[in-house]
Amino acid sequence: MILYKNYWFRPSIIESILRAQNSFKPRPEDTIIAAYLKCGTTWLKALFFAVTNRSQYDFDHHPLLFRHPQEVLPFIEVPIQGNLTYLETLPSPRLLSTHMPLSLLPKSTVSSGCRIVYMCRDPKDAFVSWWYFYNKVHIGYHIDLKTAFNMFSEGFSDHGPCWGHYLEYWRESIARSDKVLFLKYEDMILEPIKHVIRLALFLGAPFSIREEEDGVPEQLVRLCSFEKLSSLPENQTGRFTMLANTVIEKSWYFRKGMVGDWANHISMEMGRKLDCIVEEKLKGSGLVL
Ligand code: A3P
After folding, report:
1. Which E.C. number(s) belong to this protein (predicted)?
2. Does some domain include residue 165?
3. Residues of the chain under the 50 pLDDT cut
4. From the CA of 190, how far away is ligand 1's center (Å)?
């Protein structure tokens, strides 16, 4: 991996980040979903798409029943089928996503006034999720759990350190709460309906009283639930080809979808060690995980 402006990346990702920095032109009407790796981007993409387009589709014929959530919102830094100008061809308002740290997005992203929705997650769960994912994607480059954990704890992980990633968006959400919404995976799992209502409000499209009476937020949450999405044939079979010809099975984006699975993989002592490191890094920021 290469250290680029305080974050570690694989070389192929650096190339695409540099390209995005030069070519991405943020618009004030854009909304961008941002997250560190394995913090629930797939889920947030689905929720975001469903909330934004809720008046267009009924729940029996919804596009999310036939398309993987990763396909409904493009990544800023991943060109679609090699087309570098694809994002420019999209009409406003665009719904986009990124794993890039805030400081690596073009400076005009913040000044454009576009909305950003960020999702963070307990680093212990994000780590375990990443470890599984990494070993599936990088066949022949298996990394054992202990080595991976030590690397992750030192901030030496793909797009890491995660705490730097979290903090940049957290600070921006404090400074500009009308434009940056900071969500936690654990809160969303605990109270999904409350957070979907919050998301719609933030996006400037609050649920009407009628919609709430009709149970629309509940239906959206059900449609985007782990159980529903992971059981759909579209999400169980097939694959994507991502950057540097990396092949990813669509089903790999759905593993357990739960809070606290880390305890089934790393010891309490390791968990405490990572907690202490992260607490120290977040100290004074007001962000508590
Ligand atoms: P686990 O590996 O802990 O199960 P990302 O989408 O950012 O790659 O994150 C993947 C993680 O989100 C995985 O976590 C995956 O199972 C979980 N996930 C995917 N869809 C979800 C959903 N609808 N609800 C909750 N978690 C979901």
Report:
1. 2.8.2.-
2. yes
3. none
4. 14
